[in-house]
């Protein structure tokens, strides 16, 4: 099986025990922490911003992967980088002039990533692949944890993977939404190498370590 990384999304974490849950994720082999920033505009919900990024940075040495489900993401680049972001993902659908947004992001010492909603064709970003560090394929509608994986996402990952190769690039593909022990294998087989998982890791029914082990074991 190809190499993959696991980024638990704290969207489903128990915020009254964030310290303990992040520590557990790190101890049990998470490769990064995924932080979902929602603005109540690009998506209906509002989640968190700079104070939480800072807090998580102080709790963990893992890379912080900031997923911005926001319009005008450029307004927060400077703050988020100062707070400890290692990568920042902006949405194709939220950036009318994506190139300009990426140029802005390029002014900071942070990995530049672009996310695509389930209904956005991957072909839309073929012309910017050479200037990004990672692509995020949303396998649910953005805005909430605990949704069901959209199977058509697999074809998008495959098409993107082929295009990346044909352009002679090596950009990792991240997949986010509905990742659990039933969906990991197909996602990785299709070409995803970074899996984001919220409710499959942070869940009342089992420990964070068990959630991570279940995902890893499903790929053995
Ligand atoms: C959804 C977020 C995801 C979310 C995934 O908009 O981008 O990161 O936490 O949650 P699960 O893994 O439960 O689908
Ligand atoms: Zn996310």
UniProtKB/TrEMBL annotation:
Its cofactor is Fe(2+); Co(2+); Mn(2+); Zn(2+). Its EC number is 5.1.3.1. GO terms for cellular component: cytoplasm. It holds the Pfam family Ribul_P_3_epim. The keyword Lipid biosynthesis does not apply. GO terms for molecular function: D-ribulose-phosphate 3-epimerase activity; metal ion binding. Keywords: Isomerase, Metal-binding. GO terms for biological process: carbohydrate metabolic process; pentose-phosphate shunt. It is an enzyme of class 5 (isomerase). It catalyses: D-ribulose 5-phosphate = D-xylulose 5-phosphate. Belongs to the ribulose-phosphate 3-epimerase family. PANTHER family: RIBULOSE-5-PHOSPHATE-3-EPIMERASE. NCBIfam families: PRK05581.1-4 (NF004076), rpe (TIGR01163). This is ribulose-phosphate 3-epimerase. It comes from marine metagenome. The lineage of its organism: unclassified sequences, metagenomes, ecological metagenomes.
